[in-house]
Amino acid sequence: MATANNRIAERLERAESEQMDTRVVSDDPLVFEVTNEASDRVHTVVPESVHCSCEDHTYRGAVCKHMLALLLGDHADPMADALDQEAAEATERLIELNSEAESLQHQIASIDSALALTDSEQSVPEDWEPAVPDNSEQVEIQSATADTSMDEFDSMVAKLTED
Prior knowledge:
Structural class: alpha+beta
Number of strands: 4
Mean pLDDT: 81
Radius of gyration: 29 Å
Helix content: 55-70%
Distance between the termini: 72 Å
Largest sheet: 4 strands, antiparallel
Strand order of the largest sheet: 1-2-3-4
Number of domains: 2
Shape: elongated
Low-confidence stretches: none
Number of helices: 5
């Protein structure tokens, strides 16, 4: 399976080797038509939204040879700026998703601790394992906290049932 860098390198090679003409068709927003001389196909590229009408971009979401042709030609700045912005937004989203994944791992560990402490009629199968990395240090802290809470709860129940 080709890596993302290999796929980009292949598209870059095609953008460099195939004759493609670019022309501005709109200034607001900036829109280009990229004509591939070998196939006479014309594709519309909108740098601001990092979009091309070609199948490669439409169906794969890929940075296509038409976008790369803009980067290699006289219209490099708008395409480069748009790609830089998209990369920054993707990086920011990745950071958010990693934080969310970490929070979910903590929730799973907390649920696992609660399940382990409960004495219910429905027991958890012995071969069941949490779907998170071993956070034994965190689980120990949560377990100790849960033990204290259970002791307090048992104490309250005993006082209430003394009568």
